[in-house]
Amino acid sequence: NAGVMQNPRHLVRRRGQEARLRCSPMKGHSHVYWYRQLPEEGLKFMVYLQKENIIDESGMPKERFSAEFPKEGPSILRIQQVVRGDSAAYFCASSFHPGSWETQYFGPGTRLLVL
Amino acid sequence: KNEVEQSPQNLTAQEGEFITINCSYSVGISALHWLQQHPGGGIVSLFMLSSGKKKHGRLIATINIQEKHSSLHITASHPRDSAVYICAVSTYGGSQGNLIFGKGTKLSVKP
After folding, report:
1. Which of A1, A62, A73, A87 has a C-alpha 20 to 30 A away from that of B58?
2. If contacts are CB pairs under 8 Å, which of residues 48-67 in chain A contact chain B?
3. What is the pLDDT of residue B95?
């Protein structure tokens, strides 16, 4: 059973470009969470999705950021018109049941560098 | 004040020492998680607990709900235990999914 997969592992973008980060949860998991880790800071929750639904996006910046988890395929975190402050590690996690009462399994992360 | 506080921020130990990392929180929680972030950046979930104590190999996690405090202990520490250890809580109300994280404790175990 493969773990949580994220790609790309490293992504370099110039200011103003778009970044697309993909996350494939563990087999059988329908709950996906995205977290951001800014340099020298702790992890911060961004968004929680269940298949085809956004459950909680309270941690998402109001502009330029969006997330989806379609019926088929990976979850996508999309950042439009990237700025240098978006440079961070973005982690995805998944669980079979909602994460309050179950372990979340983390992917290896995508390191985004905005030049 | 952060909702989840960890101490110490940095910890250096000699191989074989007993290590304790502390976590205090100020919100009502449904569960507390201990995570390990490797030097390469990957994150592994070590424990999830809502009461009492859990043990896995040389790692022990305890939680005191009344005092809103948890500890992670490592017995017979080894250089391969060097990592950042992160405490996180999941809370009642609102989304059931998101976690609130401490800033982490960077552990370095010297041979």
Report:
1. A1
2. 48, 55-56, 58-59
3. 59
